[in-house]
Amino acid sequence: MDELPALPGLPLLPVAGRERADAARNRAAILGAAERLIAVHGVDCVTMDAVAVAAGVDKGTLFRRFGDRAGLLRTLLDTRERAFQEGFIRGPAPLGPGAPAAERLVAFGRHLLDLIEIQGDLLAAAECGSPGLRLRHRVYATYRIHVGTLLRLARPQADVEYLTDALLAALTVDLVLFQRRDLGLSLDALNDGWETLVVAVLS
Predict the structure, then answer these.
(1) Could you identify which of 38, 61, 148, 151 might form a hypothetical disulfide with 57, taking C-beta atoms 3.0 to 4.6 angstroms apart as the criterion?
(2) Is the CB of residue 84 less than 8 Å from the CB of residue 111?
């Protein structure tokens, strides 16, 4: 059985440090207000001005804390992203260690597709910014190391550098949302397609 070796150098999302009580309250108020507004109006209609008003903070505090709208949205995504990363690094098989590399690749894609199904609009909005922002982010770097390591275990002779990005391209938010909404593909169809792609790459 192929086992994924320990990867202590994975560029994981940072764990939030201790905050002053007032800063923690502001953070909770801002994130709570943003979540409520998104639930009611949709992510495209939520502005920094609206979040500041709903949270009861001035807009300067919001920008100092999160940088910009994309930074605020990325913060909202952190909790699920940390749980996902913990799952594929240390969680139970087949997503985590203990299953063959091929099975872990399939499980990785399936879990990521589930995340996009839950929060695709939020993910898409958070990825807006300069060209290549998503590819330079530590989240993509973590995915790339993980998928590349599994590929090397499952198919050592493969061109891992190329295939890693090619596989991850099939799991981009914009593509998945297009397949779901414009093409009308079901989540089951995308999951089956991902598994077919992995099998084809490893054959």
Answers:
(1) 61
(2) yes
Say whether pTM exceeds 0.85: no
Which residues have a Cβ under 8 Å from the Cβ of 134 and sit 6 or more positions away?
Answer: 127, 140, 172
Considering the segment(s) 68-202 as one domain, its CATH architecture is Orthogonal Bundle (1.10)
| 67 touches 73 (CB < 8 A) | no
Considering only CA atoms, which of 117, 89, 112 is closest in space to residue 13? 89
Could you tell me if 72 and 34 are in contact, meaning their C-beta atoms sit under 8 angstroms apart? yes
Question: How far apart are alpha carbons 4 and 102 in whole angstroms?
Answer: 11
- Please identify which residue in the block is written with the tokens 């994924």: 4
Contact 95, 108 (CB under 8 A): yes
Q: Within the chain, which residue ranges are assigned CATH 1.10.357? A: 68-202
Per-position b or e across 58-87, b if 16+ CB within 10 A of its CB:
eeeebeebbeebbebbbbbbeeebeebbee
* DSSP tag of 67: S
Taking the CB of residue 155, how many other CB atoms lie within 10 A of it? 16
In the chain, ranges of CATH 1.10.10.60 domains: 20-67
- The CATH class that applies to domain 20-67 reads mainly alpha
**pLDDT per position as a tens digit, 8-63:** 445 555 555 555 778 888 888 998 898 888 888 888 888 999 999 999 999 998 99
